[in-house]
Amino acid sequence: MPTSRTPLFVRLPRHQAAALDRLADATGRHKQHLVSELLADRLTSGAGPVSVGRVEVTNTPDVRTDEVLTLEEAAALLKVPADAVRSRAEEGDLPGRRFGKEWRFARMAVLRWLADGDTQKRRRTPPTE
């Protein structure tokens, strides 16, 4: 992210502002970073259509952010097959821990991984010479 910043003040519909608050809470990331990342691909000159991943954040007040998930629960959260979650976890791409033959995932870590997108993979790749 650039070191020079310009203040930007916008008025969002109430439901969008609330959704941004929930996304920031669920992922543990600053709203400024979330908005910047969501806009970055859209505002780059010459960029074609870009898909932006989503994290589903519900209005349910009793959602626990420190919850431990099973493999199946993590798959349901990500809305993908359990085999895909297991494969990513075994590769070390998705944060999780194996207990014997079972996997456990921290909900916040999974949501943070999802929000970070490809940046996690870029950080792990050692520099080439």
Describe the structure.
A 3-stranded antiparallel beta sheet has the order 1-3-2. With 129 residues, it is mainly α. It is elongated, with a radius of gyration of 17 Å. Helix 3 (71-78) packs across helix 4 (82-90). It has helices at residues 14-27, 31-43, 71-78, 82-90, 107-116, 119-124; strands at 68-70, 97-99, 102-106. It contains 6 helices and 3 strands.
Topology:
Elements: H1 14-27, H2 31-43, E1 68-70, H3 71-78, H4 82-90, E2 97-99, E3 102-106, H5 107-116, H6 119-124
Antiparallel strand pairs: 1-3, 2-3
Helix pairs in contact: 3-4
- Put simply, the count of helices is 6
Largest β sheet strand count, sense and barrel closure: 3 strands, antiparallel
Which outline best applies? Answer: elongated
Average pLDDT score: 78
The fraction of residues in strands falls at: 5-15%
Number of strands: 3
Unreliable spans = none
What integer value in Å does the Rg equal? 17 Å
- Order of SSEs, N→C? HHEHHEEHH
- Helix vs. strand class: mainly alpha
Helix content: 40-55%
- In whole angstroms, how far apart are the ends? 24 Å
Strands ordered across the widest β-sheet: 1-3-2
